[in-house]
Amino acid sequence: MNEDFDVIWRKGDGKMPEKAKRVVNAARDEKLLRSLNLPADVENTIRYNASKSNKTVNEYIASIVMASIQSA
Predict the structure, then answer these.
(1) Distance CA 33, CA 8 (A)
(2) How far is the C-alpha of 9 from the C-alpha of 1, rounded, in Å?
(3) Would you say 33 and 43 are in contact if contact means Cβ atoms under 8 Å apart?
(4) What is the 3-state secondary structure (H, E, C) of 11-31?
């Protein structure tokens, strides 16, 4: 197995580059969706709606939760 890789960013190097930030955010979004144990069609709907509203999945779910709390 080849273990050669390019280091894009390391903690402490300053501001994270956009390329690395997109990868990190995508991984966070997937981890959040999997932790909720939702059916696949619901996960796909959340991804679609988040993309449509130009938000990350995390931001989209947070907005749903906040709206629910504010209406209660």
Answers:
(1) 26
(2) 23
(3) yes
(4) CCCCCCCHHHHHHHHHHHHHH
Q: What is the pLDDT of residues 28-70, one digit of tens each?
A: 999 999 999 999 999 999 999 999 999 999 999 999 999 999 9
Rounded to 5 degrees, what are φ and ψ at 20? -70, -40
d(CA 18, CA 20): 5
Query: Is 67 exposed, middle or buried (CB count within 10 Å of its CB: 0-12, 13-18, 19+)?
Result: exposed
Domain boundaries, the chain: 18-71
List, as one string, the DSSP characters of 32-59: HHHHTT--HHHHHHHHHHHHHTT--HHH
- pTM across the whole model: 0.72
Instruction: Decide: 59 and 50 in contact? Cβ < 8 Å.
Output: yes
